[in-house]
Amino acid sequence: MNKIRFAILISIVTVSGFSQGMLLPVIAILFEQQGYPSSLNGLHATGLYIGVLLASPFMEKPLQKLGYKKMIIIGGFLVMASLFAFPVLQSFWIWFVLRLLVGIGDHMLHFSTQTWITSISSDQNRGKNISLYGLCFGLGFAAGPVLTSLAAVNPNLPFIISGSVSLLIWGLAFILRNDFPEQEVSGPAGSTARFKEAWKLSWIAFLPPFVYGFLESSLNGNYPVYALRQGFSPENVAILLPAFAVGGIIFQLPLGILSDKFGRKLIIPIVLFLGFLSFLAASFTHSFILLLICFFLAGMVLGSTFSLGLTYMADLLPKHLLPAGNLLCGICFSVGSISGPVIGGLYMEYMPGSSFFHIVAFLLLSVLAVFMLKGRKQEKTVACKQ
Fold first, then answer.
1. What's the distance, CA 102 to chain centroid?
2. pLDDT score recorded for residue 186
3. Residue that wins the pLDDT comparison between 343 and 187
4. Which CATH homologous superfamily contains domain 3-177+191-385?
5. Cβ–Cβ under 8 Å, residues 287 and 122
């Protein structure tokens, strides 16, 4: 693997994580201070992920025609331009549209970089490479919420800083030499057939990206509101949210290496169970220090769920189905990301006496049950197809 190419790809992913990590808590806190209800605040947070979901069915053909580099350049421009537009176009629904555009641009970036990395990685280092990908996204995502404190100085500052960083890294994409995904003439004809085949062979691998999407969006979109109502300050929130991401950063690479050694089907259920215990413990405390520890521990195990699911998908699928599999990972991530703030917002509005963490713990336990009951059967299905 070309080291310069890989370094540029993960730099782009880092900045994408930075912009996403900034947008969710900054806008959530601004809207809470302006008096918007939590359900409407949560609905607005889905804009980025609705953009991802809307764009997903139309990504495969342009990638095959334009190649990885051009898709990355177009996606990066969409994100950068939208970030600079937030301070200029200040309106609830215009910001929703801008979030849609950021979602579309981010998905172009992630789909292109994910497919590029998985296609050029070997079976022996795929887990490590995807873990580095997830690690860099996590670094960016952890840094993003730090900008929430700048919103108190000037609400426009987080958007300007994030847009400027995006502009700087976006320029690196022009250095890359374009490449195209592998195509299989004898494989399923048409995108729909490829999606069906990819889903049939690897649907269980799409559950971890769904979980990660739900966690990422609900923790960053709903939890700031919940925390403020529990008496925590915006400064406390700016520390708690990065703790989850930092935990994921620290353990991202070790988990990737462990999954290469022991297999994704063993590691994924373990991290789901440990994550369940972490959030269950968080529901029983109002101490800032104990919550910080719970967030950190949850991040250590759950911060890798997207990359583990993505790598598991690549284990189960032949190379010509990787673009379809990557798109389905993105779709499931988006469905989780859209449902997270909506369900979380409704839960807080109609069950104000309950802990926000209960709904997260329930999701993790449910997905763990599916893995335990269906995981082995799904691998047998893949073995029969090979």
1. 13
2. 47
3. 343
4. MFS general substrate transporter like domains (1.20.1250.20)
5. no
